[in-house]
Amino acid sequence: MLSGARVGVAVTVISFMAGLDSSNAWAQGRAYPTKAIRLVISTTAGSGGDLFTRSVAEALTRRLNQSVVVDNRPGAGGNLAAELVAKAAPDGYTMLMGSIASLAIAATYYSALNYDVRRDFVPISKSGQIANGLFVGPGVPANNLGEFTALVRVAPGKYSCASAGVGGLLHLTCEMYKKAAGLELLHVPYKGTAFFLPDLMIGRVTSAFDTVPIYVPLIKTGKIKILAVTTPTRSPVLPNVPTMAEAGLPGVVSMGLYGLLAPARTSNDTVLLLNRELSVALNDAALREKLLEQGIEPEASSSEALRDLIQTEIAKWARVIKDAGIRPE
């Protein structure tokens, strides 16, 4: 006959094993997901968006007990990745970690797209944001936004602003700054950040707006200077750098906003499950600490909030495109 203590231990073990059996039965018997999920992004491997997406994919893999594989599809201002997902089967196995600003810009900038961000996707959740900043080379005689603005203002057309291409987020952020400060700043488009960064460091181009995380090591070694960030609050990795608003230009707000989207007609049950699991993953203390150290601020939302954010970004960047008179090349 078992003593009371042994009975207690036996009951505990049985309960634990029953819990495992129940969990395994749920994992094996559930309708979704039963195979690997493809998470498509429009950025190249090693970029800030790529690093963020891979961290999220790892967390979702653990939460869903299924592989979540990142698929880099850069090109055409993010439209290659967006079109691929828009035309995928609405079964929850192909999703887009979308750059919300890029999707919003494309909706106005391109007269004809093979997808419609409002019609062909169902928003799942916002996932995070990455600060953008205004960078100059070490030889530029300005150490803050006020000094740089004054420098450009007295020599219209002398100074330049590089970007990763006409009509992209970095270009439009430059146009936003030019209008807000009343400046003439020559836009110099490149084929990507990797192409203009060397020229920025040696002074061939004067300035550039770009995502903060990849510049942090260059800032610390004096190879690049950052004058301000274009977010409502300061970047967690550069807390001493003021925002554009703090430096006197409150209207210049631009950041890498990311959200999880699925093809239209994806079932509501799948959307709700992914929304819940992503929210839990992004609120994990260890993941949050890891992302914040990289300059990435994780943030989940409801599906409806992401839909509203997309609409707001479309209207915002449509105004910038119209004011600057930008047309596709």
Can you tag this structure with a few keywords?
329 residues, alpha/beta, D-Maltodextrin-Binding Protein, domain 2, 11 helices, 10 strands, globular
Map the helices and strands.
Layout: H1 4-29, E1 37-41, H2 48-64, E2 68-72, H3 79-86, E3 94-99, H4 100-109, E4 121-136, H5 145-153, E5 160-163, H6 169-181, E6 186-189, H7 193-202, E7 207-211, H8 216-220, E8 225-229, E9 255-263, H9 268-282, H10 285-293, E10 296-298, H11 303-324
Parallel strand pairs: 1-2, 1-3, 5-6, 5-7
Antiparallel strand pairs: 3-9, 4-7, 4-8, 4-9, 4-10
Helix pairs in contact: 2-9, 4-11, 6-11
Question: How would you explain this protein's 3D organization?
Answer:
The protein is an alpha/beta fold and about 325 residues long. It is about 45% helix and about 20% strand. The chain has helices spanning about 5-30, 50-65, 80-85, 100-110, 145-155, 170-180, 195-200, 215-220, 270-280, 285-295, 305-325, and strands at about 35-40, 70, 95-100, 120-135, 160-165, 185-190, 205-210, 225-230, 255-265, 295-300. Strands 1, 2, 3, 4, 5, 6, 7, 8, 9 and 10 form a ten-stranded mixed sheet that branches. α2 links the parallel β1 and β2. Residues about 5-30 have low confidence and may be disordered.
